[in-house]
Amino acid sequence: MKYVSTRGAAPVLTFEEAMLTGLARDGGLYVPETIPELSADDIRAMSGASYEEIAFKVMRPFVGDTFTDEEFKGCITRAYAGFGHTTRAPLVQLAPNHFLMELFHGPTLAFKDFAMQLIGQMFELALKRSGKRVTIVGATSGDTGSAAIEAFRGLDAVDVFILYPHGRVSEVQRRQMTTPTESNVHAIAMDGDFDDCQARLKDMFNDFEFRDGVGLAGVNSINWARVLAQVVYYFSTAVSLGAPDRKVSFTVPTGNFGDIFAGFIAKQMGLPIERLIIATNQNDILHRCMETAAYTKSGVKPSISPSMDIEVSSNFERALFFAHDQDGTAIKGLMDDLAANGSFTISGNAMGALQQHYDSGMLDEAGTAAMITRALNETGEVLCPHSAIGVAVAENHIGDTPMITLATAHPAKFPDAVEAATGERPSLPPRMADLFEREERVTRAPNDLKALQDIVRERLSS
Ligand SMILES: Cc1ncc(COP(=O)(O)O)c(C=O)c1O
Ligand SMILES: N[C@@H](CCOP(=O)(O)O)C(=O)O
Predict the structure, then answer these.
(1) Which of 99, 251, 296, 328 is the most buried (most CB within 10 A)?
(2) Where is the Tryptophan synthase beta chain-like PALP domain (predicted)?
(3) Residue 410's domain is classified under what CATH number?
(4) Number of domains in the chain
C-alpha cells in the first residue's frame, strides 16, 4: 500500500513513513493511492465480531508490511483495553430510525481517543524498532490535544507539544492538557483561534530545516493513521444494524472534516452508506460551501461547541482530492486560492462528485442549547453541544434508511453549556474527579512561528 499527497508533488510513502511524517512536503495530505475494497461477505462476517476484530479486518489492508499481523493485533488490543464500554462505540436508539453512536467512552471522553490510543501504540512500536525519537506538535480546539497527551505522556521516544487557542477551549479540556505531570508533555496556550494554531503547525512542517532538525511528527488528522482508525466505527455500527444487507446513513458533527472523511473511506471500501451528513455549528463554512460551491472564510466566531470553531477545514482537502479524480494540481490551485484570497470556488463536476456522498446542515447557538434541552426531555440522553448539533441536523435528513449520529464528546467536557441548557451539571468520571484541584502547567505564546519554534527547541534541549 502506497500513500500519495493530495497536491501531487511529494514523495510516495509507505504506511509507516506516512504515519511518522505528518504533512506531505508539498503541503498536502497523504491518502492511499488506491482504496482496498471489502466484499459483502467480508462485511457480513463482521457480524458478532468484537470491535477489535473488526478493527483488524478494516485496517489491515492499509498497513502493508509495517507491522506483522500479531504486532498489529497487539496494538489494537492494547489501544482499546482502557475504554469504559465493552462494545467501544455503543449505539443508543433515539427515535424509530435514529441512532446515536457514543464515541466518548475512551480515556479523554472524546472520539479522538479511538485513533489516538492506537497511534500511540503504533508509534511506540515503530520508534522502538528504529531507535528514533520524534517531536510531536499538535494543534487543537480542545479534544485532539488532550487525547494526544494521554496517548503519548511518559513515552521516552516522544516529546508532545500541543498548541491550543488561549481562552477558547472549555475548562475541562484545558485542564486535561495542562495538568499531566510528565516532562515530555508541553501545553502551549497560543493567541488566536484554532485556525491560527493549525496554520502555525503547518508552517512548522513547511520549514524543512526546523522539521528535520527536531524530527517533527504530527498526530492531527493531517496524519493518515488518524483517519484510518476512525473508519472502523462506521463498520462496527453499520454491521450491528444489518449492513451489508441494509443501508445506513451517518450524520457527523464536523470541523476539520477528518471524522466524516473516515465515513467516506468506509463507503469507498464497500460499506453501504447512503448519505454522509455534514453538521456544522455557526462556523458553517462547509455547509455554505455545499450550498453555493464557494468556500469562503468569514472569520471564526466562538461558540458553545468550541471544538468545531474551525474555518480552514484541513481534511476537506482530502475530500476535494477525490472529488477532482485525484488531480493534485487542481487541489494545489484551490489551496493557493484559499491562502491568497480566503476563498475558492469548486467546479460543477467536483460539486457533483461531493453531492453524490454528502449533504449538510448547520445549527446556531440558540438551536444547540434548545436541542440539548429537548434531547434530555424526549430521550433522557445528555448530549454535548457538538453531538446536539449532529442530532438536530440529522433530524432534517431522516428517511427510510436508519440514521446514525455520531456523539463525539462526553457532556462533562462542556459542563457550562450543558448546565445552561438542562439545569444539571454533568459530572466527570471518578478517575477525573480531582481534575480541578490538579496543578496546571502551561506556556503562553504569541501567534508567531519563530516564537513557537524557539519554545519547542528550548524545551527539547532542557
Ligand atoms: C467533540 C468534537 N466534535 C466534532 C469535532 C469535529 O471533528 P472533525 O474535525 O473530524 O470534523 C471535533 C473536533 O474535531 C470535536 O472535538
Ligand atoms: N476538534 C479538533 C480539531 C483538530 O482536529 P484534528 O482531527 O485535525 O486533530 C480538536 O479537538 O482539536
Answers:
(1) 251
(2) 99-328
(3) 3.40.50.1100
(4) 1
